[in-house]
Amino acid sequence: MRIEARHLNKQFKTPVVREGRFAGLRSLFARDYRIKEAVKDISFNIESGEFVGYIGPNGAGKSTTIKMLTGILHPTGGEVLLGGINPHRERKRAVRRLGVVFGQRSQLWWDLPVKDSYDILAKMYGVDEALKQSRLAQFAALLDLEEFWLTPVRKLSLGQRMRADLAAALLHDPDLLFLDEPTIGLDVNAKREIRQFLKMLNADFGKTVLLTTHDMDDIEQLCSRVMVIGNGELSFDGTVQSLRDTIGLPTRFRVTYRGEVNIPAIPALEHARLAVTLQEGSVITVEANRKTINTMEVLRELGSWGEIEDVEMMEPDFEEVIHRVY
Ligand SMILES: Nc1ncnc2c1ncn2[C@@H]1O[C@H](COP(=O)(O)OP(=O)(O)OP(=O)(O)O)[C@@H](O)[C@H]1O
């Protein structure tokens, strides 16, 4: 099912608290508001079967976008279409086609045993008993749900809770999945399990997925496409590889010199973004943008600074670099 976002905007209006004498009294009569433009004119299409990552720094507008896409929050401007259905005008029809997981907040009933939440959700979505049983049997096998079937949700570990929440979001067999930080706070093993499951949902069951995350491994391992939002605006939309190319990931060279080192004030390759990031005696770390200079050029330049004893090359870490881009 296709997701279309057309010129989405969201402004939040929050009252400003006044200070000083009689401030409270004055606020009763005339209120000042501050307008926060959380999402500014965002448009994109996500085709059926795509797995798209949605990334950006804290407060960039990711959750606000997801809430508008799923119909929870009304846009100030623009329109959302999910398989042609506007979730704000036809909420019930849209809700049947989409599943949502918010990693920070469970949609399960906190004090009830896990299985009871599925009974309630099945009733809410009109999933009949036989379908509910067969789907739950499938999820129980894939997500190992049975070990905590009768445990109240509040007693689940974070990893168990996330698995339980995923099953809940899928109980009515939606075509679209919106996942807001589904791996947050999980350990390495739990992350791996969740990723395997999500990969399977997309590859084998054809679910269309939009995923927000701060974990670049999620993006690299799962997404065919990534959108970057910063300060409410889309700043990138393309493949993970083209994002890497755009950023021009720097490679780090750690060079140990024998004897004296003379770093020129302006290195010859400065125009191509060769920068000294650390100097510890005769050990110097430089960063070079491999898009603009090749390794031999870098080594030639470094060799002109002194007699090289050893060079260690370190490949860039996507996660670290993307945070610089934010
Ligand atoms: N209900 C609200 N009222 C006022 N401001 C809000 C409201 N919800 C969000 N905002 C503001 O809108 C901006 C975008 O918030 P949003 O939660 O969408 O960011 P995010 O990209 O999901 O961040 P994070 O990665 O921290 O979860 C922030 O500045 C936030 O403070």
Automatic annotation (TrEMBL):
Keywords carried by this UniProt record: ATP-binding, Nucleotide-binding, Transport
Top-level taxon of origin: Bacteria
SMART domains hit by this protein: AAA
One Gene Ontology term of the molecular function aspect: ATP binding
Pfam annotation, one family: ABC_tran
UniProt protein name: ABC transporter ATP-binding protein
UniProt keyword Ribosomal protein, yes or no: no
Origin species: Paenibacillus yonginensis
Entries under PROSITE patterns matching the protein: ABC_TRANSPORTER_1 (PS00211), ABC_TRANSPORTER_2 (PS50893)
